[in-house]
Amino acid sequence: MKKYLSLLLVFAMLTACLAGCGSKEEAPATTTPSTETTTTTEPAVSNEPIELTVGVGAQFTTFDPFMNNEVVNGYVLTHLYANLFRTDPDYLPQKELCEDYTISEDGKVYTFTLKKDLKWSNGDPLTAYNFEYGWLRGLSFGADTAYTMTTMVNYVEGAKEYQAAALEKGTDFDCTKEDHSYVGIKAIDDLTFEVTLKNPCPHFLQLVAGSAWTALPLTAPQHEGLWAFEGGYPTSGPYTLQEANPNEKAVVVKNPNYWNAENVTLDKINFVVMTDSAAQFLAFQKGDIDVALSVSKDDCSKYAGTDSFWTVKTTTNYYLAINSGSTGPEWAKNVKVRKALALAIDPQAICDVIGADYYRPLHGLVPYGCADAEGDFRTNADADGYFIDYKPEEAKKLLEEAGYSASNPLHIVYKYSNNSVHQDVATMLQQQWAAIGVDVEFACVESGVFYDQLDAGDFEIGRYGYTSGVAIQQLQIWTTGNQIVAAVDDEYYNNLYEQTVATADTEEYFKGVHALENYLIDEMTYLIPIYTSTNAFLKNESFTGYTSNSSTPYFSFVEAK
After folding, report:
1. Predicted local distance difference test score (pLDDT) of residue 84
2. How far apart are CA 114 and CA 119, in angstroms?
3. For the chain, what is the radius of gyration of the CA atoms?
4. What whole-number distance in Å separates Cα of residue 267 and Cα of residue 253?
5. pLDDT: is 133 or 70 the higher one?
6. How far from 369 is each of 90, 172, 349, 362, 470, CA to CA, in Å?
């Protein structure tokens, strides 16, 4: 999930960018009449590879799909691996490696039939056993995949028990030898893959489009992920990794063994790490990069109305997480203090400062674009009203009731990662909290360690973000079992979640999902929503065919005009 978003990137400066890497246009074929005869020459054919150079705003941390929790890694991973399904720009599932599927009458058993003659990039057969291995490896890898595997643990029969057994045994656990007969993950034959769920799941096909549901070569090491940075390692998607330096770049080249290779148009994509958004914008203006994925909204707006301006809708939220768990400060365990901090925030003022055209205040955890039984989840929830709103005077009263005053001010440490948007939000929060007498100290850290620190419970209050088109996924990550070190540890919430996901009736199920959000935000205020956003990028208008997998830019079908 983590930590999107999308959308939620953190940056460190790259001192130089790659210049002239991309071939802006393919040389056109020409037919030239002869001045002496009526014959014509053969069309001129360019042998130059068609390349695209893409600027990203943070260093890469992993290309192991089961370890990924950073948006920046997803830009590359979506080109390296193909899943049973993918999600289109409207977040709807579309078949990828799956040829067909059936669902049992009780909604718990999915049987997938793979396309015939699938291959890895090295030519080896890609079969249902690669899905079985990949999923079991992810569950048994260890603590480093625990976060990304929470959804599988929540939904797949026996996955929780299997993961627990693997964690207890550690690196001695061999998923190719250990018994998994009780786990709902089974390759029937080369083309048939069966998944058994604990409960019916109306959005399961969307889930299996995620990176944590990927097939892997049987040669992928079970308990380490550094192999994924190795150029030439077998991949299943339209591209394979040629080379990578996590702090500088990742270069991917076309995979001729991809099932849909004939429709893949680009020969090479260069993902270049450029952590300074102003430098990335300048590189785009100079033509050194073809796509800028991390420039300021103000700079993006300079291209509004042109073919270079590219917006991608996203189901992304931006909120504050309060560590009320065992590693958190004493003040965070007081619900009155948590509510006071929430009521002191004016989300609209924050959106106005960082870019009202791209950011919209959010009054719940689930963003716009996620469905419930009667339409849009957020729209329906807002129609019922909400508690968390800008009420600074009420916030002051709550702080007084909690024992804080001018002579005994509340002191908090706000942690965020270092890009300009996060800095602007932090400054606004400091001003708004200061207005109710709160003393705010900043802790700004690099993107590569930010979420690791939050996962380890090393924070008081910090910014957070997540992208998912499924409402329950926005909420499940704050159950105790889905956190490495629980910042939200509430048994009532855990039980309410379990009751909700076990509900077969669709209407009752979504009532439960709404109740989960109300408890988490309005009643207990473990989290403080700030805004949702639209992704805005810049693209070279000499190319066409830009699209996205959900909110992740996808370049496989980009071609020169």
Report:
1. 98
2. 11
3. 25
4. 6
5. 133
6. 9, 43, 23, 12, 9
Give the integer Cα–Cα distance in Å for 180 and 352: 53
Q: What is the 3-state secondary structure (H, E, C) of 137-204?
A: HHHHCCHHHCCCCHHHHHHECCHHHHHHHHHHHHHHCCCCCCCCCCCCEEEEECCEEEEEECCCCCCH
Residues in Cβ contact with 31 at an 8 Å cutoff, skipping those fewer than 6 apart: 40, 41, 43
Which residue would you say has higher pLDDT here, 561 or 347?
347
Burial of 20 (0-12, 13-18, 19+ CB in 10 A): exposed
Nearest to 157 by CA among 174, 139, 169: 139
- Tell me the mean pLDDT in the region 110-127: 98
CA–CA gap between residue 351 and residue 366 (Å, rounded): 18
Strands 438-445, 410-417: pairing kind: parallel
Residue showing tokens 């055209």: 357
> pLDDT for 250-285, tens place per residue?
999 999 999 999 999 999 999 999 999 999 999 999
Q: What is the pLDDT of residue 93?
A: 86
Residue-wise pLDDT tens digits, 412-441: 999 999 877 899 999 999 999 999 999 999
Q: How many Å apart are CA 493 and CA 161, to the nearest integer?
A: 21
Tens-place pLDDT, residues 218-252: 999 999 999 999 999 999 999 999 999 999 999 99
Residue whose entry in the numeric block shows the structure tokens 């890898």: 141
Give phi and psi for 455, each to the nearest 5: -60, -35
Q: Token pair 């940056």 is at which residue?
A: 11
Distance, CA of 138 to chain centre: 17
| Cα(379)–Cα(377) distance, integer angstroms | 6
What's the full length of the chain, in residues? 561
Residue 226 gets which letter from DSSP? Answer: G
Specify the residue for token string 């599927």.
Answer: 101
Q: Is 288 in a helix, a strand, or coil?
A: coil
Report the C-alpha gap between 529 and 518 in whole angstroms.
12
Q: Which residues pair with 464 in a beta bridge?
A: 319
Which has the closest alpha carbon to 266: 540, 550, 551, 552?
540
Q: Largest alpha-carbon pair distance within the chain?
A: 98
Interatomic CA distance for residues 186 and 324, integer angstroms: 40
Q: How far apart are CA 550 and CA 499, in angstroms?
A: 29
Cβ 404 vs Cβ 378: under 8 Å: no
pTM (two decimals): 0.70
3-state secondary structure of 558: coil
Cα 469 → chain centroid: 11
Dihedrals phi, psi of 360, to nearest 5 degrees: -135, 130
DSSP character at residue 252: E
The amino acid present at 228, given as its one-letter code, is A
Residues 6+ apart with CB under 8 A from 407: none
